[in-house]
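Here is one chain, start to finish.
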Amino acid sequence: MRFLIEADRQMTVVFEPTAEEFRLSAGETIVVEWFAESEDGMVSMEAGMFIVSAPRGGYTRAWRGDGTEIYIGPESGSEAS
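Its structure:
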């Protein structure tokens, strides 16, 4: 599953289970993609933080609006399998 996060204010996006954080300014976007057979990933907004939790048994990758990948832990980027 692939989805877009577009910030309407400054916020921190937290990727779980790696706990990596990415600061997103108003008007910025990131694309998030989940890689898993299950569909139980979750997103939530808590105290100014947007939390993206990977699906069970899967992992998450994310890209800035310009297409560069955001490192969100050992399961992202070239380290993902």
